[in-house]
Design goal:
By secondary structure, the protein is of the alpha/beta class. The chain contains eleven helices and 14 strands. About 35% of the residues lie in helices and about 25% in strands. The longest helix is centred in the middle third of the chain and has 15 residues. It starts with a strand and ends in a 17-residue tail after the last helix.
Length: about 325
Amino acid sequence: METLVEVKNLRKYFESIRAVDGVSFRVNRGEVLGFLGPNGAGKTTTMRIITGFIDADAGSVTIGGDDIVHAPVAAKRRVGYLPEGAPLYGDMTPRGFLSFVAEIRDFRGREKDRRIGETVEKTNLGSVFDQPIETLSKGFKRRLGLAQAILHDPEVLILDEPTDGLDPNQKHEVRTLIQGMAVEKAIILSTHILEEVDSVCSRAIVIAEGRLVGDGAPAVLRTKSRWHNAVTLSVRTDDGEVIRSTLAKLPGVASVDLMAGSNGSTRVIAYSKEGESILNTINQMIRDRNWETEELYVEQGRLDDVFRAMTTGELGSLTHDHHHKWNP
């Protein structure tokens, strides 16, 4: 696959603080990369380096083969950037602002009008097109920021919290727009919303204290959760301890939590050893004991669990996806 963004061994210091510490990754055409990390992890700094807003102290960034330092104009032509708190001119209207952006991008006449029209339609800004920006809601301002990022149809999109401030319907619209654009582009988006990673991203990287600690498809990262292949079971019985202790003795079961039941039922969660499948074993036990079950399902794993473990050091680095990981 064609690599559109290549980041090699980026380092950035602010006095004694290591904001970015040896980060390396690639993004291919067709990928939507979720950029995850706690506040202060180095996400926004990395994005600013990739887009050429600030310089790295070491390392390199290439956009479609153009180095962001040595060929900045060529590299930046390929990029659309939605920064955190995108600056907008309050006394302008969206019409005036997008016209200004289009002219900066060297579009004139019919081509300028065509691009503005398509962008306004994609971002649903028509109802506020001639309203002063300072009077717009946070959601409309965010959509206007996204509009300026996609107006020139760039190959690479860098989106810092693209759905911040949007209501649920607007979030759905923006996510659908991102998915629709992803086929021909490489998209990097930072988000604190793990549901967004599941619904939009084909891959995610996790950064903590300036270092990359995880890289993989959401489904792969989820397998590192203690909830991966855990089985939740409700049985019609008052004797929860018998259910718990019986399941705990099964091969492949690491531990069993007894949860609050209701109306004469017992609810338990059985965690598997190293994520192996324990459903068939538990099903056999249910048949052997003639348990009357009310609920039985298998967890795929929880991204919030993996995120917390990786960013607090409870789980080791997961960057085994060598197809994507750059090795110096």
